[in-house]
Amino acid sequence: MQTTILYIGRDAEITVVMERLLNARPEWKGICVCTDEEAVALCEKQNLDLVLLGNGINAECEKVLRAKLTALQPGLKIIQHYGGGSGLLYGEIMSTLN
Amino acid sequence: MSQFILHKENTRGHANHGWLNAHHSFSFANYYNPERMHFGVLRVLNDDLIAGGMGFGAHPHDNMEIITIPLAGAIAHKDSMGNSAVIKSGEIQVMSAGTGVSHSEFNANADEELNLLQIWLFPNQKNVTPRYDQRTLDVAARHNNFQQILSPNASDDNVWIHQDAWFSLGKFDAGFETEYKIKKARNGVYAFVISGEVTINGQVLSKRDGLGVWDTDAISFTANSADAEVLLMDVPMELN
What we know:
The complex is a heterodimer.
Chain A: E1 3-8, H1 12-23, E2 28-33, H2 36-45, E3 50-53, H3 59-72, E4 77-80, H4 86-97
Parallel strand pairs in A: 1-2, 1-3, 3-4
Chain B: E1 3-7, E2 13-16, E3 20-24, E4 42-50, E5 55-61, E6 65-72, E7 74-79, E8 84-88, E9 91-96, E10 101-107, E11 114-121, E12 131-136, E13 147-151, E14 159-160, E15 166-172, E16 177-181, E17 187-195, E18 198-200, E19 203-205, E20 210-214, E21 218-223, E22 228-236
Parallel strand pairs in B: 13-14
Antiparallel strand pairs in B: 1-20, 2-3, 3-4, 4-11, 5-10, 6-9, 6-11, 7-8, 7-10, 9-12, 13-15, 15-22, 16-21, 17-20, 17-22, 18-19, 18-21
């Protein structure tokens, strides 16, 4: 069974890389968006296992986003993704899901 | 009462890709050890051997303070901020990835292996404007002395980062003893032995061993061999 992971980040180039990295593992299904509106819309129609907050999301946006996403899917795990690439990704996801 | 964690050289994560032979003191890429996630804000300590002419093509980073210290050889760096530089042994490079930056890193020499330490610290603020710096270090100033090479202060010598962290390098004669005072309350210090053998707070450390010490304001240090070279990373123990 695949783990569905939503990545939200403002940098389009990094978002493309993250989508490639997440979907390179057969056990993960990665969906990557740049805007909070896209993230909320996706959360309304699809069950998520984990949300990764990427670059450029300021504190106020993060607060609103966390509130909206957890209202739609209570208990949804939302963590900060650091590094913008593969270096920390596996550890972050494994630490959170385990 | 001070606390410590010892990471022996042979317990590090290891990945040999042929052109890249990497040892990871903390979980990185496909190496995942839940007991080795970070030491305070120190998240990555990679000891990379890169074959001549080989390297990492353009790839992005964000929200991380990335410090590169070549130990042998030289690295050719290019980034999306327009920087193009070669960093040699005896120099230090720092990059605040902030809102996002793309860079490539290659061994600048076709016929010489590159050995570098790459260190990532969590930043004390997210989404800063990306920045790059590199400096030539006065290698003679670290003889029997912990030479500060990085700090949070732009006015200090050498490089600065967005974190309350101080790095020092020292190269010591056998038998030399000293004490290192931790720079900030509630910081810990992670010592990484580049070469030789040393004793820190009673723990004997060999080449590439790491020792993290916290809940103390100083560590005792003795060089046990003539070629003892150590990197100290004085970092906040609490994640921001």
